[in-house]
TrEMBL record:
Residues 16-100 form the Acyl-CoA dehydrogenase/oxidase N-terminal domain. Pathway: Sulfur metabolism; dibenzothiophene degradation. Keywords: Flavoprotein, FMN, Monooxygenase, Nucleotide-binding, Oxidoreductase. One of its GO terms (cellular component) is cytoplasm. Its EC number is 1.14.14.21. InterPro entries: Acyl-CoA_DH_C, Acyl-CoA_Oxase/DH_mid-dom, Acyl-CoA_Oxase/DH_mid-dom_sf, AcylCo_DH-like_C, AcylCoA_DH/ox_N, AcylCoA_DH/ox_N_sf, AcylCoA_DH/oxidase_NM_dom_sf. This is Dibenzothiophene monooxygenase.
Amino acid sequence: MSLFPVVEPFSPAAAQEAARDLVPRIAARAQHYDASGAFPSEDFVDLRARSLLGLMVPAELGGFGASFADYAAFAAELAGGAGSTALIFNMHASVTGALAHTPEELLRELGAPESCFAARDRLLAAAAGGALYAVAMSERGTGSRLSRTATTFRRCDGGYRISGSKAFVSGAGHADAYLVTARDVDAVEPKVSYFVVPTGDGIRVEPTWDSMGMRATGSHDVHFEVSVGADALLGGIEGITLLVAQVMPQWLVASYAAVYVGVARSALRVGGMHLHERGLHTLPTVRSRMGRADAAVAAADAVVREAARRVSERPGEPETNRWVWRAKLVAGDTAASVASSVLEAAGASATRRGHPLERIYRDARCGALQPATSDVCADWLGVAVLGGDPDDESESPRW
Ligand SMILES: Cc1cc2nc3c(=O)[nH]c(=O)nc-3n(C[C@H](O)[C@H](O)[C@H](O)COP(=O)(O)OP(=O)(O)OC[C@H]3O[C@@H](n4cnc5c(N)ncnc54)[C@H](O)[C@@H]3O)c2cc1C
């Protein structure tokens, strides 16, 4: 008999229900993990116990078989409990979702060897069994700009040697494997590839994370000086990162969007409780701030849902991708403005350390800063609306 309350049946709706049940527990711990800046271990014990790390894994490999739209609904729910936990989960879902949803025909057309499908299935089955994946893409000095990746790989002994340092790695030190971006050390043009590097020797976590918001993501620096087998190369194809960013922007651009809608919604919920507790809810100025915030959150939620629906139904189409960029822009900006306005309605007492609104305000501020930043999204959309090709038309590379 299982010791854990495993979610049965393994359907996306059941996963959503499980997330909803977990939110009060996660919310109750959020202050502690924010203050300590520690990885939210208990939240991940709960998620693992319900097999939810397998959300994006196809049913035949033991997962919930979630679509991108299912993911967006799940992430927004989770973020209502704790933004950091949802953000770590987002990184894991980006890896497993991209693995599960990249069409096999596309990979074959690009020259993927048959062995890459077995490697993919092993990673997905492990996630269904509780393995957690982190994303190690950003670097100090260059951020998430793939074209400027300094981490290198070289071919050796039937595999690869990866050398370099990453920054902002959410879940660092707690992941079972890292999705690492690295460029071919011998190529003249930056040829950046994805590798899945299992935790072990050659990986060193440097505890550098002490940031304003999303503190419990523990997004420390991670140093790689590690050899991996040939099957660590994602898709078995070198140099595909930029192509994936353009063809499937949803995981790189829009998956955070749902997290920040959830964070914005939690500002409304927590703000409302505070206003009632202090008897401020009858003040007209306070009410109108809450009314505007409610409308803004509902609008952002609708944009994110629309983008997610289109990704699930018509992935890769130009209009779908336009919604993806809209979703990231609207969600990031809305979270910051809503949290700010609700905090103002709540008053200075809600800015005390330890007040949940103070944490949510700081967490919400991160949405516009995560790639693609709101400014980059707005520029991408501006080029598109003016009739240009936003992926290729810019003075500096988009990624
Ligand atoms: C809470 C949190 C968790 C994170 N978790 C992860 C993670 O798990 N894994 C990971 O790899 N990264 C992660 N990141 C890092 C994130 O993905 C960014 O890469 C990082 O924030 C970039 O930092 P930067 O300071 O170099 O700023 P940049 O993003 O480089 O931005 C600096 C400025 O340059 C502008 N800019 C950036 N790119 C362009 C462009 N192409 N064209 C025009 N202008 C541009 C921006 O708008 C901004 O004004 C996380 C970040 C945060 C805040």
